[in-house]
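// run 5 | inverse folding | seed 20
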């Protein structure tokens, strides 16, 4: 382990508060779906027919629920170990919900881009979220297993206006921000408590897809708090701005590998 790595571990260990940002570089790789022969068959069957494209996110959720131990689950487990017993808050841009599998306090996590936990009306007619219809999910599973035909499937509809139900994710026609607003409000209150505190800010795989959510605000937080220090971990976009030069470190590394290396360091984990 280098001297820089040792200093970073010391900053994490000694911090009064830890702010974590998780970006698209840690998003589950959906290309793994194409390794599944049945999924490729479904893609061919659906083809350019937009009528059945709603099935794809259900299959994505199925894959997430059925996957076994992999590099993502290990990474979030490592993050849970690092933050155990600490005063932290996490902002994640990932929409795969894998962070909720780790042993972390859900009340200290905000995912402003949404995920697979709830559904909403595509028109957001009632500004509320709903549970995933169990019959629709089960029917897609049965279709995957060849127990139902494509024509047997019925797209779930909004019980209020009859519009299409979609997973509460950024990208629907009218994204329901109600899914994350409460946690975002908690996050803002938590940030107020970081003033004049020794704050360690850790960015994991945060690129430039939504820079106004994590990357730019985190730099401002470090700029205002002279006791804060930023560690920006990214395989490509790891550079630190001149505005916080001297109070930030650029780490060119895959964020999943980075978490693994920290947890393999006994000096840190036995704090």
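// decoded
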């Amino acid at each position: 382990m280098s001297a820089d790595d040792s200093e970073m571990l010391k900053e994490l260990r000694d911090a009064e508060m830890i702010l974590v940002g998780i970006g698209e570089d840690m998003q589950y790789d959906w290309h793994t779906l194409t390794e599944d022969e049945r999924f490729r068959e479904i893609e061919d069957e659906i083809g350019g027919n937009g009528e059945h494209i709603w099935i794809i996110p259900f299959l994505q959720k199925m894959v997430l629920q059925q996957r076994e131990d992999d590099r993502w689950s290990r990474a979030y487990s490592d993050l849970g170990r690092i933050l155990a017993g600490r005063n932290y808050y996490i902002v994640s841009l990932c929409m795969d919900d894998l962070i909720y599998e780790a042993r972390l306090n859900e009340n200290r996590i905000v995912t402003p881009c949404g995920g697979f936990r709830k559904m909403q009306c595509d028109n957001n007619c009632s500004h509320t979220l709903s549970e995933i219809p169990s019959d629709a999910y089960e029917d897609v599973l049965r279709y995957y297993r060849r127990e139902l035909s494509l024509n047997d499937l019925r797209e779930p509809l909004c019980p209020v206006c009859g519009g299409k139900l979609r997973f509460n994710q950024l990208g629907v026609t009218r994204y329901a921000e109600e899914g994350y607003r409460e946690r975002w409000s908690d996050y803002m209150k938590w940030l107020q408590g970081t003033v004049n505190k020794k704050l360690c800010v850790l960015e994991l795989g945060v690129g430039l897809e939504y820079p106004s959510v994590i990357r730019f605000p985190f730099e401002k937080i470090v700029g205002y708090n002279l006791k804060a220090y930023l560690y920006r971990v990214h395989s490509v976009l790891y550079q630190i701005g001149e505005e916080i030069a001297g109070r930030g470190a650029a780490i060119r590394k895959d964020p999943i590998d980075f978490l693994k290396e920290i947890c393999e360091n006994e000096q840190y984990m036995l704090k």
